[in-house]
Design goal:
The structure holds 2 protein chains of 2 kinds. Chain A is mainly α. In chain A, 67% of the residues lie in helices and 0% in strands. Chain A contains 10 helices and no strands. Chain A is globular. Helix content of chain B is 32%, strand content 26%. Chain B is built from 5 helices and 9 strands. Chain B starts with a helix and ends with a strand. Classes of the chains: A mainly alpha, B alpha+beta.
Amino acid sequence: MTGDASVALPLDSASLRSGAVRPDEEQVLVNRCLAGDPEAFRPLVQRYQRVTFSVALRMLGSRADAEDVAQQAFADAYAALDRFRGEGRSRAFYTWLLRIAINRAKDVLKSKKRTEEPLSAEAEGGQAMFAHDPGSPEAHAGQAEDRRRLQAALLTLPPQYREVLVLKDVEGLAYEEIGPILRLPITTLKIRVVRARARMRAALEEVRR
Amino acid sequence: MNQRDSQIPQDDELAARLATLRDVTPPPSLVPGVMQRIAEPAPVTLWTWLRRPRRFELHLSPLALAGLAVAGLLLVALLARDQRPGPVVSGRPTAAAAHEAEVVLVRFVLVTTGAHQVALAGDFNGWDAGHTLLENADGRGTFATNLWLPRGAHEYMFVVDGQWVPDPTAPARIPDGFGRTNSLLRL
């Protein structure tokens, strides 16, 4: 085993969100991929599969479509690794990958014109998709119902509002990270988030009725 | 409390509710699916084939390397020789350059026996009888010179030992307004 293969790879989302992932480790993996070792891409997929799948799922509402978009986003990223410029920036690969995933998801939305599609039962169905399952069965049922309403309301929003809520409120990204992903100035982004939340509240009222 | 203040707790509450959607477990088939996709060779278009970097290895002995270096130097020397400027007549541009500049090389000849000095005067040298002397090329009275002249009509005369005479072989003549005629050359 080479020294490159022994890099530490934190896989939990908490360390990812805290910025504990070292950008130089990712660059090592990217360099190995570029040198012709596709297996070096596997740790990157494992590390970012949750967030990529989550963003795609919240954008599309269908687990099957979300998995396809997530897989294609990774494949796109792999094919374009020679154009990736991490330059030591924190979470550079993460934001680059999310931009690809968001664009892929919007392509699917355009092709299927599913902006008004009702929530698919598969999006929130079953406990298998929950990473944690605390609380009583009643509490769990209440949470599941709230999640179903949230997803249903989210799917009624136009894509430009949906994407900012998914990145800002669902995934908790900073404005400074979302800006490059959506290629929007911070001021425009903040205004869009305010409007998206207002639309979301109205949509939740509609869903409750 | 104004509307903006009341909106902030609403925003925080909504953001907290939306954050519960983060808790998602991706399907187990996602990672294998990605690895399978990247393992499949992408369709190769002409453009991607041209852009793809390749590594070339060249095995050369020092002798072959020296031979290549000599061949390169010879090639450079040959190219430099080909680019050397051609002969220039009377310090004028070459024929090819003259063509581009719309000038024409003209040979003036006057055969006259017994003359000591023959000059050429015309509108192209300000009618200066001492400016352009013809050379007795064969030593037997064939006086000649070459001149680059711009395209167009030119009037001229020979001056033989101080005597102004028209060119007997001139294609045309034209009155000079003083009772004589000048030779006329159209280029």
